[in-house]
Amino acid sequence: MRKLKAEHQSWPLAKAFAISRGSRTSSEVVVAEISDGAHVGRAECMPYARYDETVEGVVAEIERFAGAVSDGLDRAALQDALPAGAARNALDCALWDLEAKQTGTPVWQLAGLSAPASLVTAYTLSLDVPEKMALAAQENAFRPLMKLKLTGEGDIDRVSAVREAAPNTRLIVDANEGWSPEMVAPFSTELAALGVEMIEQPIPAAKDAALAECQHPVPICADESCHTTADLDALAGRYEMVNIKLDKTGGLTEALALRDAAREWGMTIMIGCMIGTSLAMAPAVLVAQGAEVVDLDGPLLLAKDQPNGLVYDGSIVNPSTPALWG
Fold first, then answer.
1. Mean local confidence (pLDDT), 28-38
2. CA pair distance 184, 187, nearest whole angstrom
C-alpha cells in the first residue's frame, strides 16, 4: 500500500531577492513523498501567491489525495483529478520518481526521451537600483547568460548599467507584469539597441491582448499568460516564446505536452523555474533539453541546497542522479 505525505520546507536565500511584486529572503516550498514500503518518490513545488496558492493550501491539497494514492492513482488520472498548479506538480513528479525507483529505469527513459545532457542556464539578477544591479552583473560577468528582473520606471537605466558592467554577456529581461502596454514599444526598441534578446511577460496577463498591436523588435515570452496547452490559442499574435514552468503546468507530464504543442505552434521554448532547490529543478532539466532558453538557476540563489543536489559548474547545470530524483 502506498503512503503519501507532504512537508513544508523553508530554504534561506543567499541574499534578498526582489521582483516587481516584492522581495523575499527564503524559498517556502512543499515536498511530496510517496512510499510503497520499499521505495520513495519525492518531488518539490513552490506555492505562488500570484496564483492564489499558499503553503498551507498546497499541503492540504496534496494530503487530500492520500486515499487516491493508496488506491493506486496514476499520472494519467491525476491530470483529470487536480487542476494545474503547485500541488499537482509535486504529486506528478513524485509519481514519476517512484516509478523510476521501482523499476530501476530513469525517468527520461520512462518518458521516451533521449538521455539528458548538461545545459547552460541563465543567472538571474534581482531587481534593484542600476548601480547595485551593475555591481551584481560585474561579479557575474563570466556567465554567458543573465536575466534581469525589471519593473517599469527606470528599467532602461538598469539594463544600460548592466550592459556596461557585463559587455560580453547575453541578456534577457523579465518585468513580471510590471510595465504598462504603452511602455512595450519604446522600451523594446531601446532594449534591442542594448542587445537584449528577450522580454519576459512585460504587462499583466489580463491585458496582454495589447501586445498584438505593439511593435517590439525584441521577442516577447509568455510566463504568467501561459500555464498549460489550453492557453496556447490565446497567445497567437501576442508572444513569440513561452516560458514553461512545472509549477504552472502541474508537473512533468503536462510540461512535456506543452513543450511539444508550443513547438507545433511555432513558439520558441524557454524553461523556467521558481526559486527552489535541486529537487524542483531535476524534472525541469528533462523538459529543458533542446530549449532555446534555459533558466534553472534556483539553487544558485539559495544559501544551501538539497543533499545530492544538481552539480553546477558556473552556469552549466548537470542532470540529476537517482539519489536526488528520477
1. 97
2. 5
